[in-house]
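In practice, a research group might receive sequence data for several interacting partners and want a quick structural hypothesis before committing to experiments. The following worked case mirrors that situation: the sequences arrive first, and a predicted assembly follows.
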Amino acid sequence: MLVESLVVSGMIFVIGTLGVIVRRNAIVMFLCIELQLNAVNLTFVALSRYVGIEGQVFVFFVMTVAAAEAAVGLAIIISIFRHYETVDVDKFNLLKW
Amino acid sequence: MLNALAYESWALHALIWLPFVGMVHVLWAAEERAKHLALRWSLVVFVLSIGLWWAYDPALGGGYQLVSSRSWIAAWGVNYALGIDGISLFMVLLTTFTTPLAILGAFNYIKKRQKPFYALMLLLEVGVVGVFSATDLFLFYVFFELTLVPMYFIIGIWGGERRIYAAIKFFLYTAVGSLLMLVGILYIYVRGKVLLGVASFAFVDLLQIPLTTGEQMWLFGAFALAFAIKVPLFPFHTWLPDAHVEAPTPGSVVLAAVLLKMGTYGFVRFLLPFFPVAVRHPTVVGIMLALGVIGIIYAAWVAAVQPDAKKLVAYTSVAHMGFVVIGVFALNLNGLQGGLLVMISHGISTGALFLLLGMLYERRHTRAIDEFGGIGRVAPWLATAFVITALTSIGLPGTSGFVGEFLALIGVFEDHPGVGIFATSGVIFAAYYMLPMVQSVFFNALEKPENRAVQDLSRRELIILTPMIALMIVIGVHPTPLLRRTEPSAQMVIDRVWESVQLGEAIIEVDPSTDLGAAETDDPVGTATAADGAE
Amino acid sequence: MADVLFWVFAAVAIGGALGVVVSRSPVASLLFMVVTLASTAGIFVLLEAHFLAAVQIMVYAGAIMVLFLFVIMLLNLGHEYKRDIRGAVAMTLGFVVTGGIGGLLARQLGSGVSGLEANLGPGDAIDAALREYGAVGAIARPLFTDYVVAFELTGILLLVAIVGALVLAKKAA
Amino acid sequence: MELDFSHQAHFIVALAPEIILSVLGIVILLMGVSSRRPEGAETSADLGWISVLGILAAALANGWLYSVTEVGTHSMIALDGFALFSNWIILAGAALGILISQSYIDRQGLQAAEFYGLLIYSTVGLMIMAAARDLMVIFLGLEIMSVAVYVLAAINRRDRKSAEAGLKYFLLGAFSTGFFLYGIALVYGATGSTHVSAIAESIAGGTAHSALLVFGIALLAVGFSFKVSAVPFHMWTPDVYEGAPTPVTALMSVTVKAGAFLAFLRVFSVGFPDAYESWWAVLWWMAVLTMVVANLVATVQVSVKRMLAYSGIAHAGYLMVAIVAANETAAAGLLFYLLTYTLMNIGAFGIVILVSGQGEERLEIEEYAGFGWRQPVLGVVFTVSLLSLAGFPGTGGFMGKVFLLQGAIEANLVYLSAILVLTTVASYWYYLRVAWYMWMKDAPREASTQSIEVPIAMRLALVICVVLIVYLGVFPGASMELARSSVEGMSGVGPGLIGLAP
Amino acid sequence: MQADGLEPAAAEWEPILPALIILLPLLGFAINGALALSAARKSADAVRAGGEFDFFEGGRARTHALPTWVGPGVMLLAFLLTLVNFISMLGAELHDPWVHAYWAWISTGELEIAAAIQLDQLSMIMMMIITGVGFLIHVFSVGYMQDDPGYPRYFAYLNLFVFFMLVLVMGASYPIMFIGWEGVGLCSYLLIGFWFSDEAKASAGKKAFIVNRIGDLGFLLAIFLIYLVFQEVDYVAVLSDAESIFVYGGPAITTVTLLFLLAATGKSAQIPLYVWLPDAMAGPTPVSALIHAATMVTAGVYLVARSSVLFALAPLSSAMVAGIGVLTALFAATIALKQQDIKKVLAYSTVSQLGFMFLGVGVGAYTAGVFHLMTHAFFKGLLFLGAGAVIHSMHHALHHTHKDWDAQDMRNMGGLKKYMPITWVTMWLATLAIAGIWPFAGFFSKDEIIWMTGAMAGAENAPYPMLYTVYWILALAAAMLTAFYMARLMFMTFHGPNRTGAAEAEHLHEAPRTMWIPLAVLATLSVFGGWINVSEDLRESVLGGFGLLPMGEWLHHWLEPVTEAAHRVQESRLGEVAHSAPFGGGEVAWGIISFVAALAVVLATVRLLGRSEVPVAVEDTEPTGFARILYNKWYVDEFYHRWVVDPVLTTSRILWRVVDATIIDGTVKLVGNGARAIGWVASLFQTGQVNRYAFLMTLGVLVILSMIAF
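A structural hypothesis for the assembly, expressed as tokens:
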């Protein structure tokens, strides 16, 4: 089941990547990033059966990181929403060139 | 007396660092005292430097004298190592001689922001003296680059209309070359570390490193580019007219008199001894001689049609430096000696020309040749000084200009008569560019009322010009004392170029594995697997 | 049985992931995300990571996603159905690039199907630990011994996140 | 004192500076909470000084760690010279960053306690990154740092740009984190470990699964490249640097970059030396692209902050050369370069902070016209910093560049060295452009003639920067020796594989 | 060779203070120069104020009083010193030259060029001419330049010129000669442009310098080549070894001598570089006399004579020398026929006479060449000074009535003999001399040249017999024309009706004493100067005065030590030349030549005197047809302008505008701007849109993964 899991996680990862590229809604983009993290988790878990229990420990860490990022990321989104009244990233282009 | 003072042990250090002290002093002092202080400090340096004439004893051979060395960056084997030989002796003297005169020449020219100006002039002196007295390649490079900054600001702050353009062009152009040279320097150094196990930048150590022909060619290219831009050699010369025209008088003076010499000095000091195999290569010699000759003729012709007097003189610098280049790449003693003498002479005469043009500019606020006319009537002394200097510049026998060109030409003629013929035609074109300018400015009718008001030389200006003109004639009449001092060192350089025939070839035989063919593929692994796709 | 389950979970997870990307509504995206997380948790179970599966459901799907939902509601984005997917060109390019990456991954992972398993040995590396310490204990032991430093670091990380969220979300003066 | 980490408590010793900083962070945060003054009247000075003192204490601890030796290389936290030198760099950057941000915080009405607290925690994260030998620990360090800096970038809530910078940084940062993490996973799968020594052993022993490994390495490279902002993962840099509050920009351009590079170097030259063949070409091209693109784009910038952002990218390109070279000289060069880079960038950003004044309005290069003559001392400081960034002799930047070049040439990367110096020429253009505006143009008539008030903290920072820049440019010997001894044994890339040694 | 090793072993003859001969004029230059600078300062202040400083208000200013004594004074001393040395050398039977090195001028490695003086018979003759004629011209100048504000400057230049001229002839090596060679060119430049406020005059000086420099190129290259062959540049070493080192007629020697020829054509105004000399008449007339007639322009002849052995070894070059000489002689003579400016006539006459000298040295008659050089110095100096006196007088006259006529145009003169009798007489003597009428000086010198040309044509092993025969005929033609145009000059100036106008005529006057005394001295020399070298063949005949004329072939014997090597080569290669002249011996030729000349004078007389009215206004006398071509000097200047000067200028402009500014600098700018343009384009990727950034990052990942995967 290892290779299958890896492939599935790879697919989810790639879908997440695609989402980041094509969505303009900051929250959805962030969701897609979470998707990527989730895919990595799957990889870790799949590998842990063959390598060792640390893989599962790492997933634990990754979840923590995801939580921390979610807290901060959503705070940032709230913060920028206050300025722009939107979460469409295309509208945020004061900074360019 | 020099011995009693232990002159040899501290002279070079003093020459480098006294201007620095002076710089601090100038910055510290009041604005209105700045120029006098700067002059005094530079004079002190000059007076101290005179002792070098006696301290350097050509009878001891052509090696370095007044040597002193301290570890500077031990980790890299960099030393703060100073010393002079016959070649650098005169470059140092030229610098210390020119700087006070340039400073004096700035007295009326620089009206605003005097303190930083004089401070930068002194800093420039630090750099240049350092370049000429360093015997450690790293130290040399540091000083070499250090000279750019003050010059950049001198041109950029106190220059003319397009000063910024000129300053940045000067800076970037010369930086391109010198940075590639830095890579070359490090390459040699690393080779030394690997092949000889010696981590050192000292010239003497670097000369021991057996470099293959291929390496020598590449390194020659890197070094030659740096110096060719600095010289400037055709076709790398276009920064020079801009820089000269826009620079304030003292800047032009130092630029012409000293900074350009760093390039030709580099030719003599590094290209010839470090890469003898490359230098001997017929193609290389051919290219360098061709560029030199083209420079001589081309620059003369272009100079002849310049409407701007300063630009004209700038182009003449290119032509003169062409003589130096052909002299040096004649690869014989006469040529080299001639090249060295042209360097000295050009330093004095072109420096003086720029000073004179500066004086004219101060009076008329223009440099357009057409704006003048008949100045000789109202400023006869100025005209006299200018004519003498111009004649030196075009190499009239009896002036310093001739001796150098004569030797350079005789040297190049010995081995490359064809080149010699073309180069010699430079004497015609020198007259062709210089005399019309002299005529248009100083002769002809005094038509414009502005020109009628032109004042003759002041006492200060006379003090500036007198030593320069005196030197032009003294060197022209009796250059032998100079030549005696440069001869042993020049001979060493020439010997090095020719005697290393065996050296280079022997090394290739001994250790073929060190032939870094791989150096050109940039493939550190040697097996270009991923590299193939990447490259 | 396990294989069938695996493929079901996998299909749902991938479908959910696609749903996240293509849904117009952020809320829908979020729900699809929860679906994916849940089915991933199912796969975790199949892969003998029971504790993680639980955490995944509780923390990830439960807490974090709720936070998302909360923010979506706070910002009143729930009713925004304006398309925010980029145009055809961007989509195409996106597909090409991500497809390329996916292809490469598949090639690299797939090419070594046998190699990988041979290389890694039998999939019983954690069996002993699970047997000895149980699902939680097996994770807890390395967490508090070998990875104690990392564990402490997560503490700092969370502290930073809290402070950061506070700083930003506080209403501007 | 010897540490073998047989007991977890040994970590308390090994992590003494980090622990001190963490405590400091809490103290600062608590002080901020307890003495909340009405906004607007808030002053950052006391908190700032306390932070600096705390960092000094951490630095003392770091110095003390030199007397501690570590047994073996199996620990997750390295206690080698490299880590300690890295700490110097990061701590110096943090302290100087705090010094230059004090006046800014007051001016912009930011929340001082949170600002300093996050800054200190980002420092902790960076130090962890630089010292960690385990990819997971590196990842956590990276995240601590990143989360703190996401917030810092967006901390000016009154400023749209700041918020936008925070969002961009966050989204792209998290995105790259995904790749980085995936890379860890693949390496973990390929070698069975996340510990760099173990990874190296596994690769050397041939037990690693190469298909997974190379992708893992590539994705790790991507993750690091994002943090060090190497092309093409640099896109966020100019925007974020421009939008973030200037002190944060300064911090990002020095400590963040330093920490990322230090971890990058450790992972790649200790963890993957035997896979050198598979990654050098990638990094070679990335270095080239970074140097070329950044330097060229920087030449057309009109905002000083943005120009410095591209300059930062360009420097990342130079530092990438060291990673490609992967020998001890290059590693030492990287350390030395980062040290000087920290100083000169802080110096430059300090001036930008002073000039930009209230509301960050004066960021265009035009604003600097005649600045040098109005504020000669500041002008000189800025000029020295710029010259150092340009790599001019007499400044630390030059020595650093030579150090890097030396490493590159020892690794036979002659073309890369040539490209490095040629792109440096392009960089002269934009650095000198600022200098020419400062000294060679006259100030616009309407420009305020009033002199800029320079707070004491800023003065201190600028003086330290300039003095050290010049000191490192003139007497680099001691620091170089230290850098050199710090990297002993760092590069596992054998001299037979690269380099000129026979 | 060591500096002090230059002295030959047997130097029993010691000159008296030879260096002083050189230094005296230099001293004069220094003093006059200082005075000039000080005067110029005074004058400059006045000019600034809008006027002109009057140095003569309240007596002569010190700056203008002193040069009167210093200028000619140093020359007199130098002349006396030269004379003393000359006399002592006369008695010394010196064979080897006396050489003394004062210091090592250029000394490096193998190359040693000493600042050395060489005294021998040739240089002694030259020194005598230079100091002697020079002294006279200085004296003349005192009168001529009396009222010029630049008086001290004038003397400074003149002294400097003499200094360089002495260096030229006294130097012991080619490089030292080159110092003098260029130095006199410089002085010529300064003196031609003496009145530099006049653009035409300043330009003339410039032209002289630049054209001279073309010749100097040849000199330099010749020196280099000699050095290449000999590793030596001293006369003693080079000339004594030349026979053994060079192959007779070989490429090396031919090249060297051709290069010397190039040098000589520049300095001595031969085809194709003669164009500067007529323009050089812009300078004060005494200058024309001294520099552009008597001394400097003869440097080329001196050079050939000095290197006689080299030329003797190179028959082709010698033939070229002779050919250029004779062509120039004829060509310039034709131009002189139609010139209206009195000085222009003399200028072309000088070019023509120099051609004769070249012919002489070209056919191996080195002595004859030098001989003609000497006599030419006398009579042409005299002619110029006479012309100067005339111009001086005309100028005064025209000045008084404020008439803006040209004081030098002969059409404005006529009948001056009444007013200026001394000038008239002396100039006629010189005219007869230059025309080659027996027994004046020119007869003996010029006719020896023509005779030798004929002799060459008939020599046993004559290299190009036909060529020399042509030369001989051309030379005769040129000699005839000489007589003709000189007679024309005299008649237009002194005879016929006065055309100045009555009011002006009242102010015409004889030259002052300082001016006519030199005229008289030179007239004497013009009459008797030729007697020092009466051919032995001629001695007993009518033309030789049946032995009454003294000192047969004295100059020939005197110069023998200098020319013997050349003669030796000639004899060994060509056989006995001297007795192979056409028409048997010498007398017949002599007779013919003298007859031809006399005939020409008569023709001219008839032609001009036959015409009662000589038109005055310029427009009336615009010549037509062939005369027009001659009047316009064969349009050579125009030709040069069209085909040399303009192309060079145009090329220069193209080089500057196109090559330098556009191509080279354009490339530089392109690199710079191109880099920035690329930077700008690259910055366009920075759109500020996060998706796009993410996309590019992903693309980067894809590329990296592909790089690694494949």
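Before designing any experiment, note the following. The two ends of chain D are 39 Å apart (CA to CA). Residues 2-488 of chain D form one domain.
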